[in-house]
Specification:
Elements (H helix, E strand, L loop, with lengths): L17 E4 L4 H12 L5 E2 L11 H11 L3 E4 L7 H6 L1 H21 L4 E5 L28 H21 L4 E5 L1 E3 L12 H15 L3 E5 L5 E2 L1 E3 H14 L6 E3 L5 E2 H12 L4 E5 L8 E2 L4 H5 L8 H14 L7
Parallel strand pairs: 1-2, 1-3, 3-4, 4-5, 5-10, 6-9, 7-12, 8-13
Antiparallel strand pairs: 8-11
Helix pairs in contact: 1-7, 2-4, 4-5, 6-8, 8-10
C-alpha cells in the first residue's frame, strides 16, 4: 500500500504512457483519435478479449506490466432506457467491478493522473435545472437507470477518497448525453440519438410513412458530440484539479420531439412521427450547469445540427460493421 502523498496536477506529459480503458467505445475511440493528433506517443489500449476488466488479478497484472502515467477510465457497461431498466443487476455489478479493479490497481501503482468518466444520470430525477455539481445526492434518482447511476456515484466517491487518503490529483467528469462516430446502434441497447438515427434512416429506406417513438416527446435533453467530449477530457487533465466532479456539456437542451424532427430531416425521412405514450419518458429534463467547465477555459465547438449530419454520414458508411 502506498503512503500518503501529495501530487501536483498539471499538463500531461505527451510522451508518457497513457492508458485509455475502453478505447474501442464511443468515448474511448474519440479520446484515442484526439490524443494521437495531440502528439501522445505512447497510448495503450486493450480490447475486452485481451483484458477483462472484471477480472481483478488480470487488471492488477496489467497495471504492473504497463505502469501507466495517465489513466482515463472510459470503459463501462452502457445502454439506453430499455437496457438499463431490464438489466439493472448487470449495470450495477459490472460497472462496480470494472471501476473498483481499475482504480485499486491505479492506486497500487501510484498513477499520478487519472480521469474517471461518469454520467449525468448521477443527479436526482427532479434536480433544479440546469443541474449544478452540488446537486449530487440531494434527491431520488430516475428509477429506469438508478443502478447504473449508483455505480457511477460510487466511482466519484472513490476518486474523492483516493484524493483524501493518498493525495493523488485524480478527477471525475460527468458528461451529458453523447453521440457521434463509434456509437452503439443496437435496437435494444442504444441511447436515444443513435436509436433515432437508425429508426428514421431505416424508415426512409423502406419507404415507411410513419415512425413511432417512445414516450411523449416532451422530455428535454442536452447532447454533446463525442469529439467535443474528448477535447474537454484533455483540457480537464491539463488544467483541472478538484475533488468535485465537473459537468461536461453544452448548456443547451432540446425536446425529444425537436431532436426527432432534426434527425428525420437530416436522414431525408418525409413521413409522420408518432409517439407511444404508453412507454416511459424517463427524466423530464436533464440540462447540466457547465459554468465550472466554462470558467476553466473550455467550450464546445460542434453544432448539434452539424454533428447529427456527420453522425448519419458515419452510420451509413459503417453500417456493415456497427456495434449491435
Amino acid at each position: 500500500m502506498i503512503e500518503n502523498t501529495v501530487n501536483t496536477a498539471g499538463p500531461l506529459h505527451r510522451g508518457a504512457t497513457t492508458y485509455i480503458a475502453g478505447h474501442r467505445g464511443l468515448v474511448g475511440s474519440a479520446l484515442w483519435r484526439l490524443f494521437e493528433a495531440e502528439g501522445f506517443s505512447h497510448l495503450v489500449g486493450r480490447t475486452s478479449s485481451e483484458l477483462d476488466l472484471t477480472d481483478r488479478s488480470a487488471v492488477f497484472d496489467f497495471f504492473e506490466e504497463v505502469r501507466p502515467h495517465t489513466v482515463i477510465l472510459a470503459a463501462a457497461k452502457v445502454g439506453g432506457i430499455l437496457a438499463n431498466s431490464t438489466y439493472p443487476v448487470d449495470f450495477l455489478s459490472q460497472n462496480l467491478q470494472v471501476q473498483t479493479n481499475v482504480l485499486d490497481a491505479a492506486v497500487q501503482q501510484e498513477v499520478p493522473h487519472l480521469l474517471f468518466l461518469g454520467s449525468s444520470c448521477i443527479y436526482p430525477k427532479f434536480a433544479d435545472q440546469p443541474i449544478r455539481e452540488d446537486s449530487l445526492l440531494t434527491g431520488p434518482l430516475e428509477p429506469t437507470n438508478d443502478a447504473y447511476a449508483i455505480a457511477k456515484i460510487a466511482g466519484i466517491l472513490n476518486i474523492q477518497a483516493v484524493r483524501r487518503q493518498y493525495g493523488l490529483p485524480w478527477i471525475s467528469a460527468m458528461p451529458t448525453n453523447l453521440y457521434g462516430p463509434g456509437d452503439n446502434f443496437s435496437p435494444t441497447g442504444s441511447h436515444v440519438l443513435p436509436a433515432l438515427i437508425q429508426r428514421y434512416d431505416q424508415a426512409r429506406q423502406a419507404g415507411d410513412e410513419v415512425v413511432t417513438n417512445w414516450g411523449t416527446g416532451t422530455p428535454r435533453r442536452e447532447f454533446l458530440h463525442v469529439d467535443d467530449m474528448a477535447s474537454a477530457c484533455l483540457h480537464l487533465l491539463d488544467h483541472f484539479d478538484s475533488p468535485q466532479q465537473v459537468n461536461v456539456g453544452t448548456g443547451i437542451d432540446h425536446s425529444l420531439a425537436e431532436i426527432a424532427a432534426m434527425v428525420a430531416e437530416a436522414t431525408g425521412f418525409e413521413g409522420e412521427t408518432r409517439w407511444d405514450t404508453s412507454k416511459p419518458d424517463g427524466t423530464p429534463r436533464k440540462l447540466l450547469d457547465v459554468s465550472t467547465l466554462r470558467s476553466s477555459g473550455w467550450a464546445p465547438s460542434i453544432d448539434l445540427g452539424d454533428g447529427i449530419a456527420q453522425t448519419i454520414e458515419w452510420y451509413r458508411e459503417n453500417i456493415a460493421s456497427l456495434r449491435r
